[in-house]
């Protein structure tokens, strides 16, 4: 079996993280859905109900009145954020494992993904065509899922990949991955998202988070949002191992996102603050 065939097999074998998250995604894909349908799905899942209420009442969202009902919590958080919470709370296999091929210890992937999610949610607020912040959050959360599959195939070549980046023999770490195994974590992540039945917006954000200019017109602003969200997570000191900062920033984000240096710095601080709060509300 070739490496690519083995990678496809691993994608097939990866368990779907959260059924309820995908049921919610299915419902909200239909433009005519009602909030009631989403609330019902959350209420049918006791642990998700607890998580959603916890996050809605955490200091990040708390606005003076305690949120006691799922209905209010979904209104406060937004539907896509609820999906993000469901995925976060239920997918330790994807997010908590060590990524040995990236020399990234257990917990790093989760930390990087959550920071990128918060940063993408904040960046979304500055997009010119108004990317929904909740969609930014969920896209940021999932952007690197391909690493959970690709990691094992990079074991043994990690050092040569890093050197290829340092010596500028390749454009970025993604290209180094392609040279080593014939595909990269963005492509593999997109295939995984396809297998899980995720909507096109999420698949596109995952596939093009390092090459946002290649995304189609409808999703390009979202791809740039996650591109910057990922960068902010890495700048905040949270990558997923050897590849942190071995990517190039695409400055054409300015065509889709109107943000200045000061606003950027504010987001960096906000990510740090919210990360601690959301992490605590999800872990306690
Ligand atoms: Fe990535
Ligand atoms: Fe990343």
- Overall spatial form: globular
The overall pLDDT average reads 89
CATH topology label of the largest domain: Hypothetical protein af1432
Uncertain stretches of 5 or more adjacent residues: none
How would you characterize the overall build of this protein?
This protein has 284 residues and is mainly alpha-helical. It has two domains: 18-90, no CATH class; 96-283, Hypothetical protein af1432 (Orthogonal Bundle), CATH 1.10.3210. Helices cover 63% and strands 0% of the residues. It has helices at residues 3-13, 19-29, 35-43, 46-56, 70-77, 79-90, 92-95, 108-124, 133-142, 147-154, 158-166, 173-181, 185-196, 200-207, 220-235, 261-283. The longest helix is centred in the C-terminal third of the chain and has 23 residues, at 261-283. Bound molecules: fe (ii) ion (2 copies). One fe (ii) ion (FE2) binds next to loops.
